[in-house]
Amino acid sequence: MTLKEQRGAVEISIHSPIACWFSAMLYCFGGSILSSLMLAEPPVAFLANTTSVLLASSIWYLIFYCPHDLVYRCFSFLPIRLVVAGMKEVTRTWKITGGIAHAHSHYKSAWMIMIVVGWARGAGGGLISNFEQLVRGVWKPETNELLKMSYPVKVSLIGAVLFTMQHCTYLPMTKQQLMFFYTVFLVVTKAAMMLMQCKTSPFAPLEKALACLFFGQQPTSSKANAPYNGISSTCDPTTSGETGDAVKKRLAKKTD
């Protein structure tokens, strides 16, 4: 559904169904692909789970090609979409914990690798969004998630840090307790954002405060008539003291 709501996705589904299907698989299994690349494993390993691939492909076909868009319209109904979004956030928790456990099996005490792999598993679809857009013939490097993180990518990073700390016994709570509180936070926050139609991250005030504290105050935008680089221009009548008629006469003499 998220893919179909992207600009130009419907046209791509008509002209190139294979590209559309590949983009949908990147949306569904992007975390698995990215984490496999990080751990030097085959990125096509997700295809071994035939049931999941066939299920995702069936849903993709119904969303894009069902007559009269019946399936998409049905799941766009707000109560149903809230349930589906909540289910997705539940699976996000399992993906993060699965990625951390998978990284731990390769690197026992490398907690940074656990964080990175758990983050990739939970938000892989967003982290490889540029490659997914390239498959659809769209190239927007300014939408790189590392330049401007979306809410799912941010919350997945926070979850990866928390679950890694718990895995390394730095948090005084069990894994089940952390999974419960984290999942409840994800579901409630996502539902609130959808009901209020809020597109900004709920972490925005905290991020602004931390940015000012650790990275300095954000630079303010300069005025439109401010001199470039702080240097006054001699061609600016307001800085040279010349009137508009004097400037015109001087330019006319130069032209002659």
From TrEMBL:
Keywords: Endoplasmic reticulum, Ion channel, Ion transport, Membrane, Potassium, Potassium channel, Potassium transport, Transmembrane, Transmembrane helix, Transport. It holds the Pfam family TRIC. The keyword Membrane applies. GO terms for molecular function: identical protein binding; potassium channel activity. The keyword Lipid metabolism does not apply. One of its GO terms (cellular component) is endoplasmic reticulum membrane. Residues 233-242 have a biased composition (Polar residues). Belongs to the TMEM38 family. Intracellular monovalent cation channel required for maintenance of rapid intracellular calcium release. Acts as a potassium counter-ion channel that functions in synchronization with calcium release from intracellular stores. Activated by increased cytosolic Ca(2+) levels. This is Transmembrane protein 38B.
